[in-house]
Design goal:
Blueprint: E1 7-8, E2 13-21, E3 29-38, E4 45-49, E5 55-57, H1 67-88, E6 92-103, H2 111-131
Length: about 140
């Protein structure tokens, strides 16, 4: 009987920051901090959880925001994570990804930037999982 592929993440991986920002080009800005927690073992899935105390940081005007745009950015972020994890190796993705902070620039943020940030976050979390570094924090 073949051995089951490893589950990702094998342990909590906290304070994963993805920063996709280029100051010389318009339309490239996404900063997201997430925690990767092991899932419930129910199968291969990634759940993106948004706690009530999540920190959303907006551009300099900080006025009213269309939350449909925010959710589009979150969808793009989650899609980027899933694509990166699926492309890496045969693993069972069983993660609860908890959003901790999201920085949005009112002009330079877009879905592509958050999609790339999702890939970056997944890559960083995979590297930490392989290195055995569960809870690196920026404190």
């Amino acid at each position: 009987m073949p051995e089951e592929p490893p589950r990702f993440p094998p342990h909590p991986i906290r304070d994963v920051e993805a920063r996709y920002v280029k100051q010389t080009v318009c339309g490239v800005f996404a900063i997201v901090t997430v925690d990767f927690e092991p899932g419930h073992g129910a199968g291969s899935s990634i759940e993106l959880a948004i706690p009530t105390d999540v920190c959303f940081v907006y551009g300099p005007n900080r006025g009213d925001h269309d939350y449909r745009v925010v959710f589009a950015y979150l969808d793009a972020f989650a899609k980027g994570m899933r694509e990166e994890l699926a492309a890496n190796q045969p693993i069972i993705m069983d993660a609860k990804v908890i959003l901790r902070r999201m920085v949005i620039h009112e002009i330079d943020s877009n879905e592509h930037s958050f999609h790339t940030a999702g890939k970056m976050a997944a890559r960083t979390a995979m590297e930490r999982a392989l290195d055995g570094c569960p809870a690196e924090t920026s404190q």
